[in-house]
Specification:
Belongs to the bacterial solute-binding protein SsuA/TauA family. By secondary structure, this protein is α/β, with parallel strands linked by helices. 40% of the residues lie in helices and 18% in strands.
Length: 327
Amino acid sequence: MAWTRRTLGAALFSFGLLMGTGAADLSLLGVRAEAASMKELRIGYQKTGLPVIARQQQVIEKALAPEGVSVRWVEFSAGPPLVEALNAGSIDLGWTGDAPPIFGQAAGAAITYVAALPSNGAGEAVFVKPDSAIKSVAELKGHKIGVGKGTSAHNLLVAALEKAGVDFKDITPVYLSPPDAAAAFASDKIEAWAVWDPFFAVAETRYKVRVLATTDKTLDVKTYFLANRGFAAEHPQEIVTTLGALKQAAGWADSHRDKVAEALHEVTGVPLEAQTLAANRTQFGIEPITPAIIESQQATADRFFRLGLIPKKITVSEAVWTPPAGN
């Protein structure tokens, strides 16, 4: 697949948030249809997680069919380009980690949080090859670490270093998309890599990596289902229906653990061995955005601002969607 770069406007470009994404993304450019004539819901997803299960089970398609609405699924390599597409109105909904909406909000992106999902947990890590001299996070000081700027793995790396007493400025972050980072890790152009499943799982199966830190042992965070702000204002009921379908998919995944890896493999094409590893440590679920979740996400945003990784202080609660009454 050819990887391209696009902009989220001058603000995002200047802060280097964007990473490579599929050439197919270019076909999404254009103005979103008017609310009254909505015929298609466009959902951004990545290579793992609940949205992939929902796509494989076609639960959203079935839920929206009575309204005459079809669903188009659009794959992204990571959260930042997905947030870019949401801002541009090229997709309507999408799933990312905790960091992308923070970077997006700081740059003025037209996005809103509509639901929370479990964190990447044990399926997101900072790791090195087994023959590396680096044995701990503290020993990353002075080394090159591949990570996607503005991704959940970026937050993991920052927090893990902080916990180990290492200043972020004492390492050399190499900002790469997961496919580019995979190539750099393979050729030893980076010494460590911070990334999520299935990229982490693929690296584990290929290299038998040494894990230095994981999100579940470092952070208390969530991942998020996001919407374009204008879409959320115009189509609240479609969002409610979609969230209900995602909850149904989460229930299926929890009661069919033996079939989850095959479902992920079927949709993404990622090797079954890696998706099995990823599936076995994935938590499935979806919940409303609560004050406690907002507080946790605000702490992450404040950390990024303190380190100078976002250009201004933000208030997360200002970007949280209010569901229709009774939902």
